Q: What sequence folds into this?
């Protein structure tokens, strides 16, 4: 850990936060991790309906579709211990903010110029500490449940268990198509917390590969859990992503959110 903290990427001033599960320093530092992100096209009206009361509007990409990302994460070494996580997020901008003309290319802008972000609609994790921090600092829709993560050179399998029934309710698995080296994306997340709209920056690094989906498919059980139901409503049962990105070299800083509720042109 001492060697990692000598890396300038992690030499950031830390602000303490007391969660119901213990002490957290912000930004939270993630030192050794893997991720697998699957990008799906969905009907714009359906995706935007999930953002009705979120203070944000879905972004229209090619052919008028919305972009939903289902991301699996294996955090092996972090400042809040190891855990796994899955995020389901819709690409969006704050209400009243104009969408860039080329939204896909815009995702590669630096964070200080980035308007497009993601609103998370489900965020299961495997530890109570990660769950409490996400809810109490950012208002993220976290819940605790077992999550499987297996990433090989050409195959991925990720699972989310129903927290009540215990069986698998979401599975993303298959053999990957051809790919090329690609960078991690820095991310902007928009969330509501204590009546405020927060803009949170995630600084990332660590290369990976961007691939065609191959045989990868998102499978849903008959679970009545809200996460499985929302994925079904988005039309993602048995769906193939348009593109995937994966890496065993992810490092990141998860920053505190900035309150943009009263920013000019935003109506929540």
A:
């Amino acid at each position: 850990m001492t060697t990692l903290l000598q890396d300038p990427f992690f030499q950031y001033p830390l602000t303490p936060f007391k969660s119901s599960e213990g002490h957290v320093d912000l930004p939270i530092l993630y030192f050794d991790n893997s991720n697998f992100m699957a990008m799906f096209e969905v009907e714009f009206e359906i995706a935007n309906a999930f953002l009705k009361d979120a203070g944000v509007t879905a972004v229209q990409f090619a052919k008028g579709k919305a972009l939903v990302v289902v991301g699996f994460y294996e955090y092996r070494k972090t400042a809040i211990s190891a855990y796994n996580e899955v995020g389901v997020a819709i690409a969006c901008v704050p209400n009243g903010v104009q969408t860039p003309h080329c939204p896909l290319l815009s995702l590669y802008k630096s964070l200080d110029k980035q308007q497009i972000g993601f609103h998370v609609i489900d965020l299961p994790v495997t530890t109570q500490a990660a769950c409490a921090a996400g809810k109490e600092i950012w208002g993220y829709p976290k819940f605790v449940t077992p999550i499987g993560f297996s990433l090989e050179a050409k195959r991925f399998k990720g699972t989310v268990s129903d927290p009540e029934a215990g069986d698998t309710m979401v599975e993303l698995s298959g053999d990957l198509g051809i790919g090329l080296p690609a960078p991690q994306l820095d991310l902007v997340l928009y969330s509501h917390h204590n009546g405020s709209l927060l803009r949170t920056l995630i600084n990332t690094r660590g290369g990976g590969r961007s691939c065609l989906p191959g045989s990868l498919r998102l499978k849903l059980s008959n679970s009545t859990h809200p996460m499985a139901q929302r994925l079904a409503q988005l039309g993602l049962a048995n769906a193939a992503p348009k593109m995937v990105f994966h890496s065993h070299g992810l490092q990141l800083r998860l920053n505190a959110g900035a309150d943009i509720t009263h920013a000019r042109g935003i109506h929540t």
Remarks:
- The chain has a mean pLDDT of 95.
- Helices lie at 2-5, 44-49, 103-106, 128-138, 226-233.
